[in-house]
Input
Amino acid sequence: MGHEKQVRLIDDNGLRVDGRRLDQLRPIKLEVGVLDKADGSAYIEHGRNKILAAVFGPREAHPKHIALADRAVVRCRYHMAPFSTDERKSPAPSRRELELSKVIRESLEPSIMSEYFPRSTIDIFIEVLQADAGTRCAGITSASLALADAGIPLRELVAACAAGKVDGKVALDLSDIEDKKGDADLPVAFMPKSNAIGLLQMDGSMTEEELGQALDMSVNACRTIYEMQKEALRQKYHIEREEEVTEEMEEVKA
Ligand code: ADP
Output
């Protein structure tokens, strides 16, 4: 995170480098079931991030000594393609990728009913094809959809989005330049039904008040993303919206 302030990130009208307001998300596109060979998959475009998530399992634990008697072992690999960033990223796993694999797994695990699948594994793969800040959050959003697509029983979907601080102001969903030249970044993963936070990290510094604002902003954005996730699942499984189903049923009754 750079601290030199040559670049103005917010203009006189309060708009950001990409024209967004402070509380505005980047455009998000979600698609479920995009890979044939995986048990479940999803693709997300979140701003200029492009990320694929694939899930295998539940399947028999291999090697056997990793198996747990009372639940499935959840494993996660977050990986950035060498062509996903400005400078070619080394294909070898970096410390950052190991850390992100761990925090992403920890944010998804509470949503998975792993107790139904003792002695088995659930594998989550996240491939970042193009990175533009917020990849851990977009990775979580898409991986949760891939888990649902694999038919793995979930307590609920997990949605994720970061907020942060740019030019001294709290802002939602930082883009790459805002992340690099801004003051702070706060990635959050959220489960809307249980009102639980599964990931909360912070890079940079904010006051306690700003932290509260950023948290509110990202939790609200997660609720919006959660609605998009449900819509993406309906699209894949051709499930009509609840209102439409009710209307149709009423028509049938009448
Ligand atoms: P996140 O993607 O979750 O925001 P970071 O804050 O670590 O994670 O990274 C911010 C952004 O910095 C990434 O989304 C990516 O655009 C860029 N970045 C991360 N690692 C590298 C790398 N090894 N080389 C070039 N750019 C990178």
Summary: The longest helix spans residues 208-237. Residues 85-87, 89, 96, 131-136, 176, 179, 185, 187 surround adenosine-5'-diphosphate (CB under 6 Å). The chain has a mean pLDDT of 93.
